[in-house]
Automatic annotation (TrEMBL):
GO MF annotation terms: hydrolase activity
InterPro entries, alphabetized: Ester_Hydrolysis_Enzymes, SGNH_hydro, SGNH_hydro_sf
Segments forming domain SGNH hydrolase-type esterase: 11-200
Keyword check for Hydrolase: yes
Stated name of the protein: SGNH/GDSL hydrolase family protein
Recorded superkingdom: Bacteria
UniProt KW keywords: Hydrolase
Length: 221
């Protein structure tokens, strides 16, 4: 696994990351980490790698677009001095184009999304060991659906920037696409965005796989 003892991993994102976490930054005991995929990741790492002390921090805030996240990025991500930054943003950038189409300033265009992501990646790489870039997604198997098609543009931007900057790339959209060949999206989220515990587990599993997580790990000694 890529994480070392006493590394700090900060999850930056929107409601999919937040999921009821303490605001603006959640970590530690009780439900401060929320109930989303960051909490499942923390559970799995502590269960399988008991010899490691990894500090996981949830810096997700519900409703954020990439513009909103960038505005608080210094305070809620960089100033925490993380060794790893995980970014999951973009769903609201697209969603606002469809649920509030008359409010053009609520959404974020692909061009602005790419600029915002570049700033986040570059500033994080300047201080951290690495960046884990995850895609936004829409739980819709029909790729011709208007919002699903638009979301793919943002997914492709993430893939291209991850390759350009050498980020660890986690494609949540592709993961859900594979899963929905077997199960309907209603099993995970009626609004096709906010995952239940099954979805959070699927996302954590995909994220951990890209970080070298070994389910058969046995602590030495």
């Amino acid at each position: 696994m890529i994480f070392e003892n006493y590394d700090r991993v900060v999850f930056a994102g929107d409601s999919v990351t937040d999921m009821g976490s303490a605001l603006p930054v959640g970590e530690g005991l009780s439900d401060n980490m929320g109930r989303g995929f960051p909490r499942v990741i923390e559970n799995m790492v502590y269960a399988v790698y008991p010899e490691l002390n990894i500090r996981f921090t949830n810096s997700g805030i519900s409703g954020n677009t990439s513009k909103d996240l960038l505005e608080r990025y210094q305070r809620d991500v960089l100033d925490l001095h993380p060794q790893w930054v995980s970014i999951c943003i973009g769903i609201n950038d697209v969603w606002r184009q469809f649920d509030t189409p008359a409010m053009l300033d609520y959404a974020v265009s692909p061009e602005d999304y790419e600029r915002n992501l570049r700033k986040m990646i570059e500033s994080a790489k300047a201080i951290a060991k690495g960046v884990i870039l995850t895609t936004p997604y829409y739980m819709e198997p029909n790729r011709a659906d208007f919002m699903r098609a638009r979301m793919q543009e943002y997914v492709d931007i993430c893939a291209r920037l991850a390759a350009e900057y050498g980020c660890i790339f986690v494609d949540f959209q592709a993961m859900y696409d594979r899963y929905f060949a077997y199960k309907h999206s209603a099993l995970i989220a009626w609004d096709r965005v906010h995952p239940n515990q099954i979805g959070a587990t699927l996302m954590a599993k995909e994220w951990l796989a890209k970080c070298g997580f070994d389910y058969d790990h046995t602590p030495e000694g």
